[in-house]
């Protein structure tokens, strides 16, 4: 089975959804590593409790040198024989360096129906905009933040009494279902078409 690395910065609820999916026989990959850019990510303890190897590459130790931080991350991913990188609440901007190394093999989950509301505070902005449908997207990571081919989306209604918190929760519930499903399809399609955009060991 191909090995996935999950990159996190915080709570890690999407990470947990992926770990739990990978614990099921139907899932075509294993979680080989959870990597955080901060030692304070709550998700690290959850990963450890599930016996997943964890690694912290603390960006504050790299001063302002984003590329050297990413070079360190890349080396760790290679060392762990990772074939697919899944960002799950990884809140650090990536430079072209890491994105290029993992082109076609790095996915992200974003809490909006892209291309609307890229960036931060998506739920607040959705409420302010008065949209009636909101949701989440899984996409391939490219040099442009929250851009790149959309691989899957899930929609939820925005209800009249919604607060940022209630809307975020409704979306999050869908994130936890969407991300494992999209990864499964992505990997199965890749093995069916080994010359496709996702090359196992390629
Ligand atoms: C999730 O809602 C994820 O979609 C979002 O952060 C949250 C992380 O929660 N990601 C972004 O906003 C990326 N720009 P989690 O740590 O519990 O998975």
TrEMBL record:
Binding site for (6R)-10-formyltetrahydrofolate: 66, 108
Record key words, sorted: Purine biosynthesis, Transferase
Catalytic activity, as annotated: N(1)-(5-phospho-beta-D-ribosyl)glycinamide + (6R)-10-formyltetrahydrofolate = N(2)-formyl-N(1)-(5-phospho-beta-D-ribosyl)glycinamide + (6S)-5,6,7,8-tetrahydrofolate + H(+)
GO biological process: 'de novo' IMP biosynthetic process
Active site per the UniProt annotation: 110
Any GO MF annotation of the entry: phosphoribosylglycinamide formyltransferase activity
Pathway: Purine metabolism; IMP biosynthesis via de novo pathway; N(2)-formyl-N(1)-(5-phospho-D-ribosyl)glycinamide from N(1)-(5-phospho-D-ribosyl)glycinamide (10-formyl THF route): step 1/1
Positions of the record's site feature: Raises pKa of active site His: 146
Domain of life (superkingdom): Bacteria
This protein's record includes keyword Membrane: no
SUPFAM superfamilies: Formyltransferase
PROSITE patterns associated with the record: GART (PS00373)
EC number of this enzyme: 2.1.2.2
Entry similarity comment: Belongs to the GART family.
Name this protein carries in UniProt: Phosphoribosylglycinamide formyltransferase
Species annotation: Entomobacter blattae
This protein's encoding gene: purN
